[in-house]
Amino acid sequence: MGSSTASLAKFHKSPNLTLFCTFLFISSIPFSACEIKDVRIADDPRFMILFERFGFRSDGRVIVYVENISYKSNRPYPSSPLDPSRMGFFLVRDRLFPHVVNNQGHMDHLCALSSEYVKPMFRFSDLTIGSTYNSTVVISNPDEYNLVFANCLPDYKVSMTVHTEMYNLHYGDKNFLPAGQTQLPRMYFLIFLTYCGFLAVWVFICVHRKPVLDKIHWWMSALLLFKALKLLCASEDRAYIAKTGTPHGWDIAFYVFAFFKGTLLFTVIALIGTGWSVLRPFLQDREKKVLMTIIPLQVLENMAYVAVEEAGPAIRNPAWWNFVFLVIDLMCCFAVIFPVLWSIRALRESAGRPGGDTKAYRSLEKLTLFRKFYMVVVGYLYFTRVVALALGALLGYRFEWLVALTAEGASLGFYGFVFWNFQPVDKNPYLMIGGESDDNIIEISRIYTLDDEDDSDYEDEEDHDEEEE
């Protein structure tokens, strides 16, 4: 009890930390979050709980049902009496929400329900223990709003069951998608069809060029398949939410295919970067370690993603989970870069060694392509993780679909570059087919082996020096 109160007091006295955590939570847009929610809040001491963010048109609705309300003191002897009028729900424009959080952090006596920036829906003084209360608000001024619960009594925590509905009316019909996401179902389905065509062409190429096919091409086929299935689930998920407010199980399918797609994407990038199956038929120990790092990190990342998505407002530390999600994603991004750099170094050394102009020319061709691959990978990861978020903040809530379209366009361009340059075709400057490049394979493999031996020798020398000391 005491630790919870101390943490809450520290949170009140740290407005910058509060604002940072709030921004971090808001910046994570839940993909499969339905717009009809049932949430159970149990003994929660948080002074502010963000339930939903929604983009409204000029005729939107917000409905909130609250039941099974109970209060509990954080201390044996509270410093202030229980005053339910200092608890309640309010709406606030998304761009004004930071001001509310900042004021709450600087002035402990100020209750967010009394802020000039908010539109109170109801206070808990209107309720009685064991009763059910519902409130409906009509949105006449279109904007992006946050539905927030405020607890201005730091000595008390609250338990309740909350049912929320948010929707826009379109010609009398309810649309549970935010104003900026109504185009997503059709857009995702069209992109799904594009990837189906992509996959069909790729399979056709693989079948007709079977003699020059390598193992990596099957992994690339699986990546395209799971990418297409993820987009199909995304389309159906958004379509069902728009009509009914819930995904009807499509969110589970989305999580599954998103997991396999994400894992395969980083695996394929790492395998291509190492030159496995095409530059040489084996992996070095350090490359195996990279793969054994990426795959568990992808599992952990997807677990964090699902935890944040499904828990919603009930999760106690949303900022921490989002931080975990961000750090793991960045670790995977950095991890897949190292094999590409190792291959570039090996090709550079191979091109500089004596052995004939033809061999040097081929190594330089592969070196040039690897450098392009490195730049494209870095650009793709940077664009989808930084530029897309900045673009979303710049365009506003009405153009969320455009941000998604831009990110998917970047992904399609990246896939096109990778699949075109590393397709199974004879005389490909990257793919070394047949016996004409066997000497080069041996040369590059020897360079990789020497690199590993140099690393191990360096470690042995360090251990020897430590023993002497």
From TrEMBL:
It is a multi-pass membrane protein. The chain crosses the membrane at residues 187-207, 216-232, 252-278, 320-344, 373-395, 401-422. GO terms for cellular component: Golgi apparatus; membrane. Residues 37-168 form the CAND6/7 N-terminal domain. InterPro entries: CAND6-7_N, GOST_TM, GPR107/GPR108-like. It comes from the Eukaryota. Residues 185-383 form the GOST seven transmembrane domain. It is found in: Membrane. Keywords: Membrane, Signal, Transmembrane, Transmembrane helix. Pfam families: CAND6-7_N, GOST_TM. This is Uncharacterized protein.
